[in-house]
Amino acid sequence: MKILFSPAETKKSGGLDEKIREESFLFPKLFEYRKDVLDRYQQYIASASDEQLSRFFGIKDYLKFKKYKANIYSQPLMKVIDRYDGVAFDYLDYSALDNDAKSYIDQNTIIFSNLFGPVLAGDIGIPEYKLKQGEKIDGFAPEVFYKKYFSKSLDEALNNEPYLDLRADFYSKFYKPSSEYVTLKFLKNDKVVSHWAKAYRGLVLKVMAENNIKSIDEFMKMEIENLSLKEIIKKGIRTEIIFDINL
Counting Cβ atoms within 10 Å, is residue 84 exposed (0-12), middle (13-18) or buried (19+)? Predict the structure, then answer.
């Protein structure tokens, strides 16, 4: 069972002295398209002024964004799931899982990187980078590019098994499902609260991995602390499961 997942703005530093190469990623035959995006990114950060980069990175202090000016192709690499930080990844707590649960996440979770596009959680690897959600690279929109060149391969990978779309709404711009899928909504006092939505996406993935969930039926039988089923809405190929957060 595949899970579609959002990245995080925050990244962990460090990694191994490896080189970015096509075998490191999901869909290696499409590597030339990823490299096109990376080349655009590298060319822009190499030529832009500090004032432009301050806006691009969303960081005012030069000393804080200076490290992102380094050549992306020469930076240390880290496994995708280990690189990302943030609320959802805190609640997932990947490092504390046993090897079977880690393997489940590595092989089944597709994370939609703002720079690298769709990658497997277990892909080796990506460098620390800075590209905000929705940020264009000198007028170029990565999400539009990836949707154009990666949707067919994603369709082929997803159409033959059930999958859960845990992405934030923005990431549908990278890929719009073409077969039946399930998405979740988390409400607290009848409202979507960003922090808790992120937290429970991470917690849901954690519990799925711990229980080796392979189908929607198995998913529906899962018990997740402080969540109760509120409603199920089916429209076309999309089934939305709405949960109340009882905290």
Answer: buried
Cα Rg, the chain, nearest whole Å: 18
Q: Is 224 helix (H, G, I), strand (E, B) or coil?
A: coil
Question: Positive or negative CA dihedral for 194, 77, 131, 10?
Answer: positive
Dihedral of the alpha carbons of 161, 230, 203, 117, in degrees to the nearest 10: 50
Mean pLDDT (whole number) for 21-36: 96
For residue 132, give both structure tokens: 């905000």
Say how far apart CA 68 and CA 125 lie, in whole Å. 17
DSSP state of 98: -
CA pair distance 2, 212, nearest whole angstrom: 11
| Domain boundaries along the sequence of the chain | 2-129+140-245
Q: What is the pLDDT of residues 67-110, one digit of tens each?
A: 999 999 999 999 999 999 999 999 999 999 999 999 999 999 99
Q: Per DSSP, what are the bridge partners of residue 111?
A: 5, 119
Amino acid at 236: G
The pTM (predicted TM-score) of the whole model is 0.96
Q: Are 25 and 31 in contact (CB under 8 A)?
A: yes
Joined together, the tokens standing for residue 204 give 């849901």
Amino acid 29: pLDDT: 97
Going by their DSSP bridges, the two strands 109-113 and 181-187 should be labelled as unpaired
108 burial via Cβ count (<10 Å: 0-12, 13-18, 19+)? buried
